[in-house]
Amino acid sequence: MPISRIPGVGLDTGSSGVAPSNLSTGAPSWDGSGNLSFNSGYGSTAVAYGCRAWVNFNGTGTVAIRGSGNVSSITDNGTGEYTINFTQAMPDINYSVSAGARPVGNAGCVVLTPEVTNTTTAYRISTRPDPQAAGIDAAYVYFQVFR
Predict the structure, then answer these.
(1) What is the pLDDT of residues 65-91, one digit of tens each?
(2) Residues 64, 71 contacting (CB under 8 angstroms)
(3) Residue 67, Cβ neighbours under 10 Å: how many?
């Protein structure tokens, strides 16, 4: 279904998608498949792939979300073990995840995916000082999903 106008954005439908009618060259546009494309100053226009979910949370004591998008809650599964629950499910399990953590103090920390099956509705992570060590609670955990 073509979009005829996006209120407040100023994009009008062209025959092959949405053409920027009153914006500068390189402005956002949609192709016939509904893909949003734009030039972010890198010299070419490309399809934009959005962040489908993100969260910044405190993983120590009572787990608490500081800020998030499309994350309904965090489940504390034990020391350094968390499940991030999505508000809206992913379309499939073929998404990409990026995560980081900062523990209490100056110790290093890595984020791993434990040996569990992640789903369209949740993703499980583990924070550890190194891959072979036991989990440690992290003061700051950052997590993003792209699809």
Answers:
(1) 999 999 999 999 999 999 999 999 999
(2) no
(3) 9
